[in-house]
Structures are given as structure tokens and as C-alpha cells.
Request: fold
Amino acid sequence: MNKVITPLVLAAILATTPATGQEAGGTLNLVIQPEPPSLMMGIVQNGPTQMVAGDIYESLLRYDSDLNPMPSLARKWEVSEDGLTYTFHLQEGVKWHDGEDFTAEDVVFSADVFLRETHPRLRATLDYVESIKAPDDHTVVFKLREPFGPFLGTFEAGTMPIVPKHIYEGTDFANNEMNNTPIGTGPFKFNEWQRGSYIHLVKNEDYYIEGKPYLDEVYYHVIPDAASRAVAYETGTVDVLPGGSVENFDVPRLTELPNTCVTDAGWEYFGPHSWMWMNNHKGPMTDPNTRKAVMHALDRQFALDALWNGLGKLATGPVSSSTRFHEADTPSIAYDPDLAREYLEKSSYNGETLQLLPLPYGETWQRWAEAARQNLIDVGFNVELVATDVAGWNQRVADWDFDLAFTYLYQYGDPALGVSRTYVESNIAKGSPWNNVAGYRNPEVDALWEQAALSTSDETRQELYTEIQNRIVEDVPVAWLLELGFPTIYRCNVQDLVTTAIGINDGLRDAWIEQ
Amino acid sequence: MIRFILARLLKAAVILMAILVLNFFLIHAAPGDPAAVMAGEAGATDEQFIADLRARFGLDQPLSTQLWLYIKGAAQLDLGYSYRQNMPVAQLILDRLPATLLLTLTAFVISIVLGVVAGVLAASRQGGWGDTLISAVAMIFYATPLFWIALMASLLFSVVLGWLPGFGYETIGANYTGLVRGLDIARHLILPATTLGLFFTAIYMRMTRASMLEVSRLDFVKTARAKGLRPGVIQRRHILRNALLPVITLAGLQAGQIVGGAVLTETVFAWPGIGRLMFDAINQRDYNVLLGVFFVSAAMVLLFNLITDILYVVVDPRIRIRS
Amino acid sequence: MKKGFARFARNRGALIGLVILTLVIVIAALGPPLYPQDPWRMVQRPFLPPFTAPGLPLGTDALGRDVLAGLIHGARVSLMVGLVSTVVALLIGVPVGALAGYFGGWVDDALMRFTEFFQTIPSFALAIVLLAIFQPSLFFIILSIAIVSWPPVARLVRGEVLSLRSREYVEAAVLSGQNSRQIITRQVLPNAVSSIIVLASLMVATAILLESSLAFLGLGDPNVMSWGYMIGAARTVLRTAWWLTFIPGVAILLSVLALNLIGEGLNDALNPRLARRGE
Amino acid sequence: MTILQIRNLSIALPKGADRPHAVEDVSLELAAGEILCIVGESGSGKSMSANALMGLLPEGVRPVKGSITYQGRDLLQADEGDLRALRGRDIGMIFQEPLSALNPLMRIGAQIAEVFEAHRLLTPVARQSRALELLHEVGLPDPKKAIRAYPFQLSGGQRQRVMIAMALALEPKVLIADEPTTALDVTTQAQILKLIEDLRRKRNMAVIFITHDFGVVADIADRVIVMQHGRIVEEGPARDVLLHARHPYTQKLIAAIPGPGGEAKDDKQGAPAILRVRGLNKIYKTGGGLFSSPRVVHAVNDMTFDLHTGETIGIVGESGSGKSTAGRCLVRLVAPDSGRVEMAGVDMASLSGADLRANRRRIQMIFQDPYSSLNPRSTIGRILTEGPVSYGTPRAEALARARELLELVGLDASAVTRYPHEFSGGQRQRVGIARALALQPDIIIADEAVSALDVSIQAQVLDLLADLKRQLNLSMLFITHDLRVAAQVCDRIIVMKQGRVVEMGSADTVLTAPEHDYTRALLEAIPGRDYERALKDATGVPACQS
Reply:
């Protein structure tokens, strides 16, 4: 496994970078939804923050749509034979937006001090890391306690943003004044944030890649109402509608507009995967037959067509097809109302009213819950929707106070990073809506997860994960729904907008406008 | 007069304090807490992380302590800190307050002016087709959901006709300054302010009409006619001025509704004001922001009330001289 | 009373309102049994425009559900929310106003400060908070609307009681040995009833509007079909299927308009003197 | 010289009114410099004819026949512009209620200046100085201050003076005065009447004076027109009509004027005192809060008197004298601040709860306003039985008693099932009396019980009260502003001024030989005193006895 990946990645960059054509200049207007709470990505890592701050902050690597690493702040890297030592060689001549030099010390500070404190998701990964050292100004060495298969997949900007040591060292990170005027190394500098209105970024003239970025200015517009966002695109105020910024019902109409392109690429790293939690702790859903009845009662193709415009795929199990080690050939969980009725017949279900929590993320999810309720009623369930807002949803899911609940989660490219967390027994704990909320317990599968994470061989991991996927689908602890397809709608003359697995989160570095 | 204002201010302060306390308990009675929401957005699965967040927000303190700290701060105009938005609540609100004030005050002025003019026109043509028309239109606006008008207006004037911008506060990225910027904002203001104002225009119109008709039956109007004054003068000087008194009272009472209506209008027209801030804050259980917005909107209502009280005093010598 | 009805009937608007409202009530009462289509059932392909598919006169919504069924079932809910929340608001507001107006002094002060307090909070925002706390089920939607709409009732009743209690027949009742409860319920309130009825008819209208506004913001009961829900759900497809917003919008408009017209007619008929109080 | 002539004027009422015409076939002439009084009870159409002159009829009411000729022109045919030019300049008008007749939001000066403005006369500065002169002329105490004042800052009499100043601003040839003194206290009324009389002399102005009060007529009129149901029933020089009325209606009206005399006043001082009032005080504080000091009004100041069994005491005073508050203190509708109200040895002023309730039935009230004193939503039966029922009388028994009471007060027993609005003012007042009697009280307090009634009805009600009192051996406190009424019914009279009792004594003494200046002023101010004497001479009997 001692591979030097750099040449391969260089080829990838060359492939997406035609020798001619890029035109410098211009302003790109995008929608940001909802308004991010903060742009300091080291502290806040929610979707909108990542989208904007992905232009300001960088990490060591980027990933192509097949999740292969590409250089970013690291120009090349090596992994030791035993999978325990990762050495990164940093770009030279990189400056922070305030003019200070970027050095390996910044990386050590970010990963070892700052993010250990502030970044919950990375913290879990950093548990595998024994030490982080900077032998010189342009080299960083990560030493692991034990091998961790997905480790090289964690150097994405949202997962491990590099923050300036000279600003944060010794301060209260969360309350540092500078959080409001973020300083990064990225292609764009923070200029102005009119709360409730727009965020304005300007070109980083000192960016370490000559000629990049091409754009002079970027505006992220805060437009709270989905219909207004659609209007904003139509009237030409914005050029890009990132995934999820307009209601799915509006997508077909918008894509028919002239000079309009649409893509659902750029989400491969996240692999948004939706399912319906079924409460395995108590109530009717403890019976596997009831769970199977639910699984087969759901008309997911209808949801995909009517609610998601056909974008995305039917999920086949716990792992998304864009995530590594996906297994397509799992037992069938297809829509079959008759089969559902059969299972229901066999089950201990007695006509109890099931409480179904829709995901409070907008109309599409609300309609989906209504459709699902109707599907379930059609095979003989009694179902009641429980309306909640985001906080109420979090609370009820975290307290296991539901029978059925919609959700979706990111998979971060690797089952060990984004899938196992919702199925292993050690992750059953009240208080978080994002762990193994269903309460699925299978010690044999737990052992397989453990083994797969520690393995560094892709072949071994594939075998283990295939086994895991088959076993879990067999048990139906949750009802898998769709691999969500989030369409990015943009003017066709905006070029190279989506070139990586995190899409426009770090896409503006390469984007340009054809005049 | 100064005594009067002082007395009103003191009363307002008491009400505001009571509102703070009540809201504090109301909102804390709600399920969910900001730590859980934030952890969720960060994709955290980590119990410790949520506990840390709670500790940082002071959510692990007893409720009474949280309330005491909050009120102590509010007394010094410190509305707390929004951990979700990572900045002081007062600043968040102050950032957005001008937009809301601009919207609500414009809507207020539009509705009063249009409403009074239409009411006077209708009253002076009582029973005629002009009256019937104005009254019918007002009745329809009064019966139409605000957000529905907003949607239809945005659809018609912005999308279909393309006359006016359908959302936002100004043309973003245009970097206008001075007068040009003012005009640009004004153009953006037209749709939301008119939409918000229409409902209230209808109310003021009906009110003015009824009040005009009532006043015109009073004795002093007869006196004025007996003097040989022309109808126009009587209408303006005698009837209208007296008829406006109840309209002013009503306007004060409606202020709260205008602030509330701003939530819907700001949502549809993407107007960056505190109405929208409030809706987001409720969804995210950002207690401090929510409390702050409540505080400020109640203060706005009290301010509107005070303004109308003062107006009343200015217009009505009976109160001016006695107080 | 007969004279009152004659005055009411002279008002053309009020008659129109009465006709519309009767129609809505008939639909609400008889509609569901006569048109038993479940409004949640996905019966056809989504977004069928009105008058294009047999059996689906008003077409289908985003999930292929029958719009006419929604409209019919929604009438029931909208009316119920409007009526019940008004009744609850009256149950709060009338006693508060009556006690404040009748006893005056510190009782009045305390109750009116309490009322003022509720009036100072923007009512729509308060409704949102209450629903956020209680979760939007039909029960709590009605309760929230009632809680934000009782203060005007209290103020109106207080004003009426205040003026009625100085009437000489109330003094006569005091002298004839009746206690406060008897005086309030027998002497005072019956004479305030007409104003209360007028206000109540307008409150029903306002409650329907409020419910639809809440549903528009996603704070409706997801298990109950209402017009407000239909608009809230359809606004995202306003551009592609404007009729889905338009049809229930017109239904609300007509019902609210009818109630307002009736309220105005009642006002003219019952208390010509109070023409402007009902606001 | 006739300056104004009305010929066969008929004014139609809108459909649905109780009669087709407000005024029917009315003709009259007005000579320069004369005061013509139009007299009649409410609904007689007296105001309508005057309003028609100004073209100021209420909506829906319009002249249908006849002509009004002024300076050779028919005003009924004149267009609005011509009428406007006439109003204020040729014909001025003053109204009954000077407070509501003035715009509350405009300064007095501005309201007067408006008259000049309306006719495009004078410069704004000159208008103000002219307004000042006018205010001076109508006798306002401090014209400089008054001109800057708002109407609410003036007293009733001062406001009426302002109205007169306004009406006279352009020296009109005709002044129409529509009940201009009815809302005023008697002393103020006398002053205003004198003012009108003086101005008429000085300016040789014709006045149409509309009133219901024959005393006023007697004091001021040159000629009199008596109207009934929209028609003129009698017309002639004042002396003739007043002293030698021909039409029975006029005779009835004149006979109904209350006055002293009647039955001989017994001295009931010997009877036991049924009510002993000692040192009664009531202080009102209004306004006032954290930042302002309250206004304090001493409404009843140290009142002391005894009421003897079978006696009627009149409490007389002008508005604001505290007479009504005193009455309400006695029955504890108002809680007195200090003092004792002893009734059969029990101090009413200190009772509360059940004790108060048990004792209160012995003292009942008759109220002023026949329209607001009966609950419009209750049947007469219910109104009359509520009291007894709440004191424990079975309903059937109470109802039977109610029927008896109705007949006692001169109504039909079948009235129990009807509602108050089905009755006239006088009938309602009878119901009010029946209600007071239903609890079989010992003492009746009649608070301005006849003030709102037309004079003929007033006489009937007074007679009824006198009969009942005799039959039931009631003791009575009769609160009134009208000395003539007091003179007619009372054994003793208490005169109050600003909360204080200024004089107390037997009716005869107080009325004929008052001790206090204020009582004397009150007596002086009663209109038509000379006339009453003349009438007495002419007919040989006191007015109320005929």
C-alpha cells in the first residue's frame, strides 16, 4: 500500500482542465440555503457553512467523483507499508488571507489542538491517531495507533479544515472575534456578510496556483423562501442553485429554461442516503415481520418519480452506491404490497396507531411522509403523522419517541466513516438523533464492522462489507428508501463548477464563466 | 406631556419585563434544545460533544439561574449571545432591524394614507357606486390571506410582468451607493410593503369610512354648515380630523399585527428582517435570539403604541391639556 | 328581533355572505358522506389540471390526490377551527372582560394589564411559539388561535360592561338585592350579546385566516386536510400548478368574505350605534 | 315688517317612521326684531321647521310642499350655493347642546373666525380681533383666554355664549335658537335668555326661539306658536296665548307647569325620623397616577338631616351640586367615605354583605332616564319580580304582586309579558315606580324622576307619586334641579351647592323667604315667575290645580 498517488491525480486535474478556454473574470451568484450560522468551518460544519467556507478554507486533499484523493494543500503524500504512518508534503508559497505564511505548524495545530476540541466527527477519527508532527515547515506526519482503512478519506475540507494557528492559538476558539472574518488559505477571501441578505467573497490574488481562481467575485444570496429562490434564478439574479435550494417540484420547470444545465454530481463524498427509522426498542416495530411489512409496503419508485424528479436511485441496503464497498446484490427489498400484507398477517401487529415522524426539511419530505403514510394504510397499518420542527424532531428521535421516522445521513465515502455508526450496538445511546437510533443489535455484524475498519486491504474490506450488507438487509432494522439525488441547477456557461466529490463546496476554485 | 411620556415608558418597561419572563418559560417549555440541533448539523454522534455544547450555552444551569442571568443582561440591553449564529443577539437584531422597520413603517404609512384617502372617498360618496366599489375591494383584501396575496403579487408583478423585483432588499452585487441605492431599495420595497400594507389599508379604509359617517352626524358638523362653510372645508377641517381619532387608536392596536404580518411577508419576499430571523430562530430553538426578537418586537409594538398615543395627544387637545 | 332580521336582510352584502356561508356549511356537513373520496388517497397521476380527467373535476395535486375531496373535507376543518377557537376565545375573553368591567378597581387593573400584555406580543408570533411548544395538532392549533384572539373580546366586553354597569337598571338590580353574578349574567351580559356576536363572526373569519397562515408556514396538523394545508402544500408548485394554490385560496377568501359580510350585516342590524367597534 | 314667511310647509319623514310628515301645513311669519317662540313637546315638529329654514334637514327628511320666503326668494327652491351664502350671514343658528355643537379639536377663536372665512370676509388677523370683540360682547369673562381655549375648557353657559357669538358674527337678520337653554342650569339659563333679549334689542334681530318650557316663553316671547304632532294648534301674541289659551292642548300644557301650592304642606317633623343622616362625606379622586396629582372633588360635604315618616324632602341643586351622589350614598350604590346613615337604628353606611342586602330593600330608588332604567332584554314581569324573588318570594306570588303593582301605577296588568321598548317614556317611568314599590320599601329616593319627561307627562307622574305616597305612607327623598317641581311635591327642601347643604327648611320658607343668597339666585332664575303670578291672577288658581 505504499503508493504515491500524485501522478495519477495530476492526470485527473489535467483531464478536467482543458488547455485552452478558461476566461478569467466575472462574478458568480449562488444561492445559499439556509443562511449559515457561521463561516468558521473549524467550529461549524453544517451544510451551508461548508458550501461557503469551502472556498475560504482548504484541507490537505480533495477527492474526485470516484473518491480518489487529489492534491490540495498537500502536493503529495505517502502511506507506510503498515498503514500506520501518513506523510504529507505541503505546497510551497502558500499564504493565509492576512498575509502570514502557511506552514506545517498550522496543520499540526488544526488537527491536533483545534479540531480535536471543536469537530465531533473528526474527533472520532483522531482517536486512531497517536501523534501529528511537523518535521519541517512543509511536511506533516500522522502516526496511527492501529491501522484505519478509511483514514486517507478524511482530509476533505469540511472534515479537516486547516485553520490559522497564529490567530487561534491560546484563545477561546468558539468565541474568537476572528470567527466573524474567517482567514483561510483558499481561492477566495471573505469580504462582507450582510446577515439575512448575502455573503460576498472576493478573489484571493495571492492564491498559490497561478491563474486561479478565475472568478473575481462570488456572492452567496440568502433567500429564505424556496419559491423566491426559483424566481431569483429565473430573473437572472443568481446563476447557481445548489442541491436542495429549490423545492424538487420546481426542478423540472427550471431545467427547461434556456441556457440551463443540471447535474446531480458533486455529492459522491457525502452519498446522502435516506431511510425510515423503525423503533426496534419497543412497540410493534420490534417484530421483524412488521418491519418487513413496512419495507415492502413503501412505493419508493413513486417517491423517486413524483417527489425527486427521478434523480437518485432506489437504495438497496445500508451502503450507498457512491460509497466505497457498495454491494448491489443484496436480498430484495422491493415494493410489493401483497408481500407486505403477508408479512403483516404473520406479525404481531394489532392495529396500533404508528407514529411517523416526517423529516422537517421542507415540502418534499412532508409530501413523502404523506405518501408513505398512505402506502402503509393501504396494506393495513394505522399511521399518524407527528408534525415537528427541527428541534422537536431531534428530540423525539434522540429519545426514541417514535415508531417510524424519516431521516437521511451522509456516508463520507466510506462505510467505516458514515455507515457503521448507525448500526453498531456500541452506538446505541439516547440523546443523539444521529447514532444507532433504531436500536439494531447484532453482535456478529458488530464484529464484522470492527474487522473491516481496521483492515487496510481493499479486497478484504470489500468481502467484509458485502457480508455486512447482506446480513443487515436480512434483518431489516430500518426501511431503506433512496440514495438521494440533489440537483445542482446552473447556467450552462458556468464551466467546471462541479469537478470533485464534494461538488461546489470546493468547486469555485476551478469554475469560470464563458462570456 | 413629558410626564405623560415618562409614565407610558415606565409602563412599557414593566410590560417588557413581564414579556421577557413569560417568553423565557414558554420557550423553555418547548421540546428540543439548541445543542442537539447544532450537534445534528455538525453530524455529531457524540454524547460528550452535546454535553459540552450544553455546558457552553449554560443550558446545564438551573432554569432560574438562566432566567436571572438573561434578565440581568436584558436590563443592560445585553440580549445574550446566539451560539447558533455565533454573535451577540443584539447585533443580529440590529443588523436586521432597519430592514424590518423600513418594511413595517412603509407598510404602516402606505396603509394609513391609502386607507384614509379611500375611506374619505367612500364616505363622501356614501351609497354611490364609488363607495360600493371601494368598500367591496377593501372587503376582499380584508378577507384574503396575506401570504396568498404576497405569492400572487410576486407571481404577477415579478415573474409574469417583470416590472418589479420579487424578493430581496436590494440588487445584490450591484454595489449602488447614495441615491441610486436608495431608489434600488425603494423598488425592492414596493411589493412587500404594498402587500403587507394592503390588508391594513382595508382595515383603515373601513374604519375611516365608518368614523367619517359617524362624525358627520354630530352636532358640530351642523354648526359648521350653519356657518355657511363649503362641504369640502367641513369634510376636511371638521369631519376628518375628528374621524381620525379612532383610526389612530386602531392604528396603535394594529401595530402588533403589522410586526407579526412581517413574518409572512419577509418569508415570501426574502426580506432580511427580524420577522424571518424569528421564524428561523424558532425552528432552531435559538432561545436567546428568539427571546431577543420577542423583546424587540414587543418593544416595537410599544413604540408604535407610544407614537399613536402621542399623535392622539397632539390631535386631541382634550387629552393634551388635561395630561 | 324580527326588525333586526329585516335590517340585516336589507343589507345586500350580508345576504350574499349568508348564502355563501350556508353553502360552505352544507358542504362541510354533507360533503364527506356524499363525496366519500379520501382526500389523502393518491388516486391519479399528479398535477392533473381541473376539468381534464373524468371523476376528478378539480384535478389532482402533487401526489395525485383529489383536489375536490380536499376542498370538501377542508371546509369542515376550516370551519371547525374557526368556530371552536372563537368559542374558546369567547370563553376566556367574556369572563375576563366582564369581571374587569364590572368590578373595576384593582380587579380591572390586574385583568387589563394581563390582557394588554397579551396584546403587546405580536399575536401571530405568539401563535407560532405556542405551536412550537405544543406541537401542531388540531387541538393545539385551536387552543393557540384562541389564546391569541381573546384579548379583543375581553376589551370589547369590558367596554360594554363598563358602560352598561352604570345604566340605571343595573343600579336598580343592585337595590333589588341581586348579587354580582346574577347582575352580570342577567342584566349586563344579555345587553352586550349583540356586540359579542358581531365580534365573534369576525373572529371566526380571522381564525380561519390565522389557521391558513400557520399551515402556510408548516404549522398545520399533518393528519387533517384543511384549506390552509392545501395552500401551504401547493405554494411550492405555484409556478407549475397555480390552480392548486388558487382554488383553496378562493375557498378561504369566499368563506372569510362571507363571514365578514355577515358580521357587518349583523352589526348594522344589532347595534347601529356601534358600527365601528367590531374591528 | 315681515322678513321671513313660511307658507303651508310640509316635511316628509322617511318611510318606516311613525308618521308620514314631521311637519304638516305650517305657515308662519317673522317680523324684524321680534322673538317668535315655537313651543311643543318632543316630536311636535318644532325643530324640523326651523331646520328646514336653514336647509339643514336630516338625511331622508325633505320638504314636500309649501314655500319659505326670505327677502323675496323661496329658500326651498334655492340651490345649495345660495343657501350657503345665506347661512351664517343672514340666518344664524344656535343649538341645544353647546358642547357637541362645537368642534372639540378647534380653538374657540378659530371656530369663530371660520364664519368670516366661509363668507370670504376680513383678513385672518382681522378675523381674530373681531372674534375677540364678539366674545366680549356676549359677556365671556376673559375673552383673551377664551379665544385660545378649546370647547371642553369652558363651562356650559360659556359655550353657549360662544355659540351665540358665532351665530352673531355676521350680524344676521334672523337667529334660530333651538332649545338653547335646555341643557343649562337654571341660573345660567336666565343669563343666556337675558343675553339673547339684549342682543335682539341692540341689533333689531328677529329670533325664532324653539323651546318646550312655557316659563321661558313667558320671559322672552313676543309671539308664540304652539305645535302638536307637526301642526300648529295655536298662534298669537305671547300674552294672549299664555293667559288665555284657546286650544285645549295649550291649556293642558299650561296647566301641567309645576309650581308651588297643591295640597297643604303638613309639618311631619313630629313623626318619628325614619332616616337619620349624620356627617355624610364623599370625595372623588379622578386621574392621578405616578406622575400626576389626582383631581379631588368633594361631592358630598358633611351632610346631615333627618327624614321623618311620611315626609317628602326635596334635594335641590344645579348640576355638580352633589345631590345625586348624596342619594346614591344613602342606598349604598356609592360607598360614602364617612358619616352615618341610620335607618331604624341600623347604620346603612357601615353594613356590608348579607346585612346590607337585607336592609337595602327598605329603601328603593326611582331613576331619571326611563330608557336606561329598564333592562331592554327583560320582560316587564321579570323586571318587577327579580327583586322579590331574590329576597325569597315565590315567583308566582311575585308575579301576582307585579300585576297588582302595574294596575296601581296605572298600567294594564297584561304588561308583564311585554318588553320595555313597547312603552312610551311616561309608561316606562311608571314601570320604574312599580319596580321600586315591588320590595315594599319604607323610603323612596326619586332621582330626577320626572326631568326627562315632557311637561304633560311630568304632571301625570308627579300626581301618581303623590297618590302612592299618600296610599302607602311612604317617606320620600325627591332629588331635582327644578325648584318648581320641588315646590309642588316637597314638605321640606334641602338646597345643595358644590357638595354642601346651603339651606334647609320647610318648602314654603325656602321658596318664599330664602335665607341664603344662592337659594335666592336660584329662585330668581326660574323663568316665567312673573307670568305665573299673572296667570294666578288671571285664573285665580295655582297652575297645577286647574
Notes: Confidence is low (pLDDT under 50) at residues 273-279 of chain C. The domain at 2-278 of chain C is CATH 1.10.3720.10 (MetI-like fold).
